[in-house]
């Protein structure tokens, strides 16, 4: 699979609604306060990572010894592929986060791909997976917006060696999470990111949650500094302003419902709307914004990132 590259980038429209970034412009206006906390030392000195870990611990209630920060959740996924070797048999659903397939190929895994089916306006996939070295599940999944209940995650933990649950969009699923299951299942890893709900895609902050023994193992593969000093400040800022993020999620959820109603979108959990393809709808939207074309189970869809701008 071809990887994303800066060489592939064209000029982006004001509304680049094809990458699921945060397009809540009210949140962007509020972010001006963040720049006031930056100092020259944030460029000149090496980062103090302890401040980010302490902030996350206080904000999430997750003990810092169960957290490993990463340069975006993508790097967190890469760290898991490196630390959990050899992963020979890995299972994941398609379509999903593309880097799972990329890293599976890089690290010589043999994938079992579970294809999503589309019927009667709904997506379904068989997550009855057993006897694999690793299972990756995005929960909710992008782009189908489907979610897996915790009882199914526990079943996967019992039936497979390692289980990776990517919660990049969990805020848009009423904050439903399986983080508490890491205390019960030693083979469970949860990935999170500050790119989606928190609006930090450009800062590149993610983290892994698992038990402390696993954290020690994975830490052997991390870079010397997980984040930059500016990213540490961003983590602190987000953790100090939880209401700001919750209000942004609520605002975007309201906008999402309006876009779904206007374009007959399929109900899904995420910061995007999935619209059955029509030439008229696509022609209208592409004149306003960058949007993503997708094919799932031989059906075409338009994925549009939610924004507080009328489209």
Can you put this structure into words, describing what you see?
Helix content is 34%, strand content 19%. With 311 residues, the chain is of the alpha/beta class. The longest helix is centred in the last third of the chain and has 22 residues, at 242-263. It is globular, with a radius of gyration of 19 Å. The model has no long low-confidence stretch (mean pLDDT 96).
Say how many strands there are: 12
The shape is globular
Rg (CA only) = 19 Å
Strand order of the largest sheet: 1-9-8-7-6-2-3
Main β sheet profile: 7 strands, mixed
Helical fraction equals 25-40%
What structural category do the secondary elements indicate? Answer: alpha/beta
Number of helices: 11
Unreliable residue runs: none
The percentage of residues in β strands lies in 15-25%
Alpha carbon gap, first and last residue: 32 Å
Order of helices and strands: HHHHEHEHEEEEHEEEHHHEHEE
| Average pLDDT over all residues | 96
Short description:
By secondary structure, this protein is α/β, with parallel strands linked by helices. It is about 35% helix and about 20% strand. It is built from eleven helices and twelve strands.
Provide keyphrases for this structure.
311 residues, alpha/beta, 7-stranded mixed sheet, 3-stranded antiparallel sheet, 34% helix
């Amino acid at each position: 699979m071809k990887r994303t590259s800066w060489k592939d980038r064209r000029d982006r429209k004001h509304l680049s609604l094809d990458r699921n970034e945060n397009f809540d412009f009210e949140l962007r206006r509020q972010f001006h306060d963040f720049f006031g906390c930056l100092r020259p030392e944030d460029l000149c000195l090496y980062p103090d990572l302890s401040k980010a870990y302490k902030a996350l611990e206080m904000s999430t209630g997750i003990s810092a010894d169960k957290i490993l920060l990463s340069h975006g959740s993508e790097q967190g996924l890469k760290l898991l592929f490196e630390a959990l070797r050899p992963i020979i048999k890995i299972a994941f659903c398609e379509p999903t986060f593309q880097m799972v397939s990329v890293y599976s190929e890089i690290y010589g895994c043999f994938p079992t791909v579970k294809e999503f089916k589309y019927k009667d306006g709904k997506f379904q996939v068989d997550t009855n997976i057993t006897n694999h070295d690793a299972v990756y599940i995005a929960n909710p999944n992008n782009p189908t917006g489907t979610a897996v209940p915790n009882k199914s995650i526990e079943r996967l933990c019992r039936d497979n060696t390692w289980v990776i649950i990517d919660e990049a969009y969990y805020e848009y699923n009423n904050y439903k999470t399986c983080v508490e299951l890491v205390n019960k299942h030693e083979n469970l890893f949860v990935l999170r990111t500050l790119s989606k709900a928190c609006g930090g895609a450009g800062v590149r902050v993610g983290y892994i949650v698992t038990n402390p023994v696993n954290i020690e193992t994975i830490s052997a593969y991390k870079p010397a500094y997980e984040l930059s000093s500016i990213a540490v400040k961003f983590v602190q800022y987000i953790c100090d302003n939880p209401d700001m993020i919750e209000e942004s999620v609520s605002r975007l959820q309201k906008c999402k419902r309006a876009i779904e109603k206007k374009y007959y979108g399929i109900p899904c959990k995420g910061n995007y709307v999935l619209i059955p393809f029509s030439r008229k709808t696509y022609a209208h939207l592409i004149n306003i914004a960058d949007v993503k074309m997708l094919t799932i189970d031989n059906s075409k869809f338009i994925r549009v990132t939610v924004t507080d701008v009328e489209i």
